[in-house]
Design a protein that fits this description.
Choice_anch_I, Methylamine Dehydrogenase, Chain H, 2 domains, N2O_reductase_N, 8 helices, about 575 residues, single chain, Alkaline phosphatase, mainly beta, four-stranded antiparallel beta sheet, 42 strands
């Protein structure tokens, strides 16, 4: 069963697989022998791609779909536009038009960051050109042959993601509130709840903005923070400034929103009726010293996945949720993130060090710390918990791994480092939304699988082919995430931002989730930029995934739509059921 002639595809089911190598790639094919009576699974297969030909320009980031008009709306971020794609034939998607946000919004319109659709109404998150100033949510009426601007609602700084509640009565917006490039301005992170009355023609809206000031040091709710399980940092920052909402998912009954606080390794739970922050869930830390949870810590040693005295700070980007037997579960794509971009221009040593960061000999304020740069510094004591008898070792040990200096110091109680706290989990996880208990983590699956297929070309970057390049820095970086039900089974689709491709897991039983398939059509021998600019329909850097149920799909089959940031491609995948019955 040949699925693609020249592209790598991975399918695994019940442990029965056949492997064929060709043209420098590896294809793993499903063994057709029945495995379990009356069991079923799926395969995803790419059937069509819309190509912008724009390299590394954020030309395809987030995507949403309108089942009525069979159109996909794709964030063309840096252009400040939304591309409108005709998806009526997903094997040959085409561009129907675009929305130029600056034509409709009065103000200093910056990048578009997110888009969502519900019942004829399109919502777009738009930042200000000065990202620390207030941004907007722009609303549009979508019809078969037209798009009509309705209004732009002012919201707080850096609206980064938005989503309609399932009942369509509210829109929830993550206002990230990132600092400017020298940390001289640091807005509050907020969540906007926009109440909506929409009759298909006219819109009435009312906005409530929540911040986290009640959790500041000395404030009424500070004691509720699960501080041992999360990260509190930021340059001279309050808790409310430190919190930077990244992503939102809403419970199926529209009663609660779950908001990823990525840099803080936490999730906020919000009651949407009372418009109150109910609680903060700390996600804890991944123990990379345990079997099955290792990592490759260096970009100079090829494939070297093993256990280390390292804790992973999950720091999810995309999150989503689903319900099983009345219990809500949260899924997290454990990308990891740091504040280094905003610290680089901080030149005051006292302020830097007072906030728990490292001030180096080049007058740089540092959190993304690697021992290769600071090995000889007297401020760091290399403890016996670290490899190589009290040192970081060489290129094939922990010398090059980037970790959070602030968190490592805080969790070790000083600069005698027994354990390092590294960015990201290199995995996806499932949590009980009520208790905060982690019931599943994919461990080191992503690195192990990509290493088996690509060899030393695993942990590649998304914008160039340089094997092993990201091993010292968050590895494959799972970022995009979607859930879909196919038949009686529920699946998670996880996009790996750096290595590329989509991992598929059966999550019907959350605690016993199983790997199903990995699809990746990148060619590690090609020049990435040249290939993209030549218009090749190969995907690099999946940023957003939309699941389309069979009853809503143009071809009557469940479908994935994947927006890819680096390649500027929007790809359509058929989801095919495979039945293994006697």
């Amino acid at each position: 069963m040949t699925l693609f002639a020249k592209k790598p595809l991975v399918v695994a089911l019940g442990g029965l697989i056949a492997i064929t190598a060709f043209s420098g790639c590896v294809q793993i094919e499903l063994n057709p022998t029945p495995i379990v009576e009356n069991s079923s699974s799926i395969q995803i297969a790419k059937i069509g791609t819309y190509v912008t030909g724009l390299y590394d320009a954020s030309a395809a980031e987030i995507v949403t779909f309108d089942k009525t008009t069979q159109q996909a709306f794709v964030v063309n971020a840096q252009s400040g536009k939304i591309d409108i794609l005709d998806a009526s034939n997903p094997s040959a998607p085409s561009k129907r038009g675009e929305i130029t946000l600056a034509n409709d919004i009065s103000g200093a319109v910056g990048a578009a960051n997110s888009v969502d659709f519900h019942d004829g109404l399109l919502a777009v998150a738009v930042e200000n050109t000065t990202k620390t100033d207030n941004g907007w949510v722009a609303f549009y009426k979508v019809a078969e042959d037209s798009i009509r601007f309705i209004e732009a609602v002012s919201v707080g700084a850096l609206p980064d993601m938005l989503t309609f509640t399932p009942n369509g009565k509210q829109l929830v917006v993550a206002l990230e509130g990132e600092p400017n490039n020298d940390y001289s301005v640091d807005p509050l992170g907020q969540v906007a709840i926009i109440d909506i009355t929409w009759d298909g023609t006219s819109l009435l809206s009312n906005t409530t903005e929540l911040d986290f000031s009640d959790f500041n040091e000395g404030a009424a709710r500070n004691g509720e923070l699960p501080k041992a399980l999360m990260v509190l940092d930021g340059l001279n920052a309050t808790v409310a400034q430190s919190f930077e909402p990244e992503y939102v998912t809403v419970k199926a009954d529209s009663s609660e929103a779950y908001v990823a606080l990525q840099e803080n390794n936490a999730i906020a739970v919000i009651d949407l009726q009372s418009k109150r922050i109910e609680r903060i869930i700390g996600l804890g830390f991944k123990d990379h010293s345990l079997a099955g949870k290792g990592l490759d810590a260096s970009q100079k040693d090829g494939v070297n996945i093993q256990t280390w005295p390292v804790k992973g700070i999950y720091m999810p980007d995309t999150i989503t949720n689903y319900s099983v037997a009345g219990t809500t579960y949260l899924l997290t794509a454990n990308e990891g993130d740091d504040r280094q971009d905003w610290l680089e221009n901080v030149t005051d040593q006292a302020t830097c060090e007072a906030s728990g960061y490292f001030f180096d000999a080049k007058d740089n304020c540092v959190d993304a710390f690697s021992a290769k740069d600071y090995y000889a510094n007297d401020n760091v004591t290399l403890s016996s918990g670290i490899a190589d008898n009290g040192g970081f070792g060489g290129d094939n040990q922990l010398l090059r791994l980037k970790f959070s200096y602030h968190t490592t110091v805080a969790k070790n109680g000083g600069t005698a480092f027994n354990e390092l706290y590294a960015y990201g989990g290199r995995s996806f996880s499932i949590y009980n939304a009520e208790t905060g208990e982690q019931v599943f983590d994919s461990g080191d699956d992503f690195e192990q699988m990509t290493a088996e297929i690509f060899g030393a070309d695993f942990n590649n970057d998304n914008a160039e082919n340089s094997g092993d390049d990201r091993s010292d820095n968050k590895g494959p970086e799972p970022e995009a995430l979607a859930i879909g039900q196919v038949g009686t089974q529920t699946y998670a689709f996880v996009g790996l931002e750096r290595m590329g491709g989509i991992m598929v897991y059966n999550i019907t039983d959350p605690a016993n989730s199983t790997f199903v398939q990995y699809f990746n059509d990148r060619d590690t021998s090609e020049d990435v930029q040249a290939s993209i600019e030549a218009g090749n329909a190969v995907d690099y850097g999946p940023e957003g995934i939309e699941f389309v149920a069979a009853q809503d799909s143009p071809n009557g089959k469940p479908m994935l739509i994947v927006a890819n940031e680096i390649s500027g491609t929007t790809s359509f995948f058929a989801i095919n059921e495979i039945f293994d019955a006697k």
